[in-house]
Amino acid sequence: MSSTPTPGSAERRDAGSRHEPESLTDALGHTAPGADPGLTEELQQELARQQPEALAPAPAGDDRWREAAREIFAGRPAVAVGAVVLAVLVGSIMIAFTDEGVQEASSYFFARPGDTFAALGQAIGGAYSALFQGAVYNFRADGFARGIRPLTETLNYATPLIAAGLGVAVAFRSGLFNIGGQGQMLMSAAAAGWVGFGVSGLPLWLHLPLALVAGLAAGAIWAGIAGVLNARTGAHVVIVTIMLNYVALYLLSYLLATPGLLQAPGSANPKTPPMLETAILPRLLGGSYNLHLGFLLALLAVLGSWWLLNRSSTGFALRTVGENPRAARVAGIDVPRATVTAMLLSGALIGLAGATQVLGSVTTGFSSDIDAGIGFDAITVALLGGSSPVGVLWAGLLFGAFKAGGSAMQAGEGIPIEIVLVVQSLIVLFIAAPPLVRAIFRLPQPGARKKVSA
Amino acid sequence: MRLELKGITKRFGALVANDHIDLVVEPGEIHCLLGENGAGKSTLMNVLYGLYTADEGEILLDGAVQRFTGPGDAMAAGIGMVHQHFMLVPVFTVAENVMLGHEHTRSGGRLDLEAARTQVREISARFGFHVDPDAVVEDLPVGVQQRVEIIKALARDADVLVFDEPTAVLTPQETDELMAIMRQLRDEGAAIVFITHKLREVREVADRITVIRHGKVVGEASPAASDTELASLMVGRAVELTVAKDEPVLRDNALEVEHLQVTGPDGQVLVDDVSFTVRGGEVLVVAGVQGNGQTELTEALVGLQENVTGSIRLDGRELVGRSVRQVLDAGVGFVPEDRNTDGLVGEFTIAENLMLDRADGAPFVRGGSLQLATRDAFAREKVAEFDVRTQGIDTKVGRLSGGNQQKVVLARELSRELRLFVAAQPTRGVDVGSIEFIHKRVVETRDAGVPVVVVSTELDEAVALADRIMVMYRGRVVGIVPSTTPRDVLGLMMAGIAPENTEGDAA
């Protein structure tokens, strides 16, 4: 704990000379004397005096969790890539265990071990090749136009993941854990959908933007409720957003089951009518591909979020609040206001995900499962992307590929689609344990900086 | 039980917190350990309680050498400690708290709460504590909570009782009651160590007094000694720390604080009817033992405190009730007491930290967009001007040394157009070279005609920097005196004893 710095370093000399007249006053003079809480503080200060280089802002008490969460979220790209590789490796093992061919061959493993290995290779290779062909390029299709189709599906699946992932990332950079993606998506889908099928007689250039704006606004308001409650009353964002998920789910169920509200006329199913042609996001590559304008909107959102977080004064304030709310307050930043702003922005981005779902992907009318788990996948995407907009883009594309390729894997190789979900979950697990990933791949410790002398 | 500490030495690296301290506490005696904050009293008691292991020296109880590896050993040996911050579980009852850690159990691991209740009642009756064993601790007043701590120690048959700054959280009445309890415990034969820096209390209950300064025993005193004698022992002779500065040139602009009162979230009055004026061109140092309202006073000046009454006028403009942003815009520069939690964002770069409180407009923001080129040019200039030792402006502030971090805060606050400069403990945890630099900049700010308020708990710094010194005690102003005031007088004032003929509110 008290490893001493290299003797003779400049800091040490300074500290040493200071110690002669009044060292104790320095080391101990600022703590509440005697008490155990003071004790740790005291010791920290003493250590800090001896190793000025080690004087990183010391997390104490509640800040420790904040610190841990920050480390998990703002993980380095290397850790993210490592986590993906590890998850794929563990996934391979699971494929091997569940594959019938492998099981069969292993029953006579000692007689002909080669068979087992061949079966292993076939199972794992087949699985990931099916995943690739389902997500990027299908070599067995005739012609490029059909072969590239899986890639467009991937982009399509990635669209809401990227948008919602950005929403979660923006909230997190502001120190807020928005797990209300589901509720915000449902509300935005309801609003965008209602405008999409309920408002008629408008031209495309007016109707579509109107529906999109309605979706964004609904998501923003739903997240904003949590923001305002947190800013005004100190209610915990995590708890409020979780509860708002339920409120949104059952509110939407009610709206869908009530004729005259969202339910399709003349139907008994809890489902909306299809969207009007004028509210549907145009297909980007013509009718034979599902890829729609929403993907470009998600890319724009990436750009916008990047500018917001890294280049705007609002983003600067949000990041300051996220990193150190006390310093933000002392610097004259209105912390409650920043909280509300962050939640509004976060909700709007998640609202984009909800709106593109109903206006682009599922235009034939939707029910209360329209969020398709994206609200929660978005947390994973934000985690994997290290809460940076560019990272979220890549993570969203990867998860889009998993979604698109997963079904192909099941259809082509008979591998249960659950394997893909397991791999996804393992990614999160590994990201949540950065030291493990670092140890396996021998990545440098971020804490190592503390030992480096200038 | 007779407690003897022999040659206790505790080092933290190059720092000697306790330097061959000898101390004997006889049974039936209240032994006062007197010393300034940071003199090493707490370290010594933590060694005694097994929280630290001494590098040299030994602890003897009735002549037998003890080896404590943790508080459990110390408790088992009969040492009890009443901490300044209570070690109680607020939602538990008194009885539950008392048995915590050595629970009585009946067969099947069931708690024997009744035994604990009886024990609390017995001890309570013996000392006239009036503590209900079934009361929930968080509902009890602070003074009673402290009695629960004492009961806890007594319930474990402690023969040596250590009271670590026990009066810090008590009202005067509660303090008197505690004194009576201590006397009673002494009469029952307990050996009592009473740690404090308050002279009045010492003279009231102590049988013997040991004064500690800079980790060494500097002398013993009899309870009959005068406050002046005790204070000069405690504070010691002047340590050389000079700041070159001319006579102040007073200007007309001024900070005028009148009847300022700050109430904490728990309703405690933290700053009590404080009034003072600082003219442009002078430095007022707010001195006092830490925790006597200085922090809250500076926070109130900047608008960080919620419940503030009275008035703070800067050049005639009222600042009470304004937001932090408005106060900063009124030209107030603020160096917070704890730069790591309040002054800097460790994960941000030097450049980002240099614009932390200016992220709302020109020159660093135009049209909602950060002006990175302007920011970086500014940062490079300030890093050079304030001699921040770093590899570049993109270095994260959390990786700088304390002195360099403080220079970043100072550079940020001093580069605005200032009408008032408030610095709380600006040299805390800062190396000697940086201290000189910081003092120089404070004096330059003064000479530029800005009113300067510096909070310092170190008397040396207070005397060196100040044109006038305002001493605070328990949220009130003891007096405002010239910086030429003798140290023993200042020491007395820090203990709450006002000298004759001081300006200001000599409460």
Task: Give a quick summary of the entry.
Chain A is mostly helical. Chain A has 2 domains: 82-135 and 433-454, no CATH class; 149-416, ABC transporter involved in vitamin B12 uptake, BtuC.
Main attributes?
heterodimer; A: 454 residues; mainly alpha; ABC transporter involved in vitamin B12 uptake, BtuC; 2 domains; 69% helix; 0% strand; globular; disordered N terminus; disordered C terminus; B: 507 residues; alpha/beta; Rossmann fold; 6-stranded mixed β-sheet; 25% strand
The spatial strand order of the largest sheet of chain B comes to: 6-7-8-3-9-10
Biggest sheet features of chain A? none
- Overall 3D geometry of chain B? globular
CATH topology group of the largest domain in chain B: Rossmann fold
How many angstroms separate the termini of chain B?
A: 42 Å
- Any idea how many domains of chain A? 2
Q: Termini distance of chain A?
A: 20 Å
Strand content of chain B: 25-35%
Which SSEs are present, and which pair or pack?
The complex is a heterodimer of chains A (454) and B (507).
Chain A: H1 10-28, H2 36-50, H3 63-73, H4 77-98, H5 100-106, H6 113-135, H7 144-147, H8 149-173, H9 181-198, H10 204-233, H11 237-257, H12 294-311, H13 313-323, H14 325-330, H15 335-361, H16 374-384, H17 389-413, H18 418-431, H19 434-441
Chain B: E1 3-12, E2 15-25, E3 29-34, H1 41-48, E4 56-61, E5 64-66, H2 71-76, E6 79-82, H3 94-99, H4 113-127, H5 142-155, E7 160-164, H6 172-187, E8 191-196, H7 199-205, E9 208-213, E10 216-221, H8 227-235, E11 254-263, E12 269-279, E13 283-287, H9 294-302, E14 307-314, E15 317-318, H10 324-329, E16 332-335, H11 339-343, H12 350-354, E17 365-366, E18 369-370, H13 372-385, H14 402-414, E19 420-424, H15 432-447, E20 452-455, H16 459-465, E21 468-473, E22 476-482, H17 487-494
Parallel strand pairs in B: 3-8, 3-9, 6-7, 7-8, 13-20, 13-21, 16-19, 19-20
Antiparallel strand pairs in B: 1-2, 1-4, 4-5, 9-10, 11-12, 11-14, 14-15, 17-18, 21-22
Helix pairs in contact in B: 8-17, 14-15
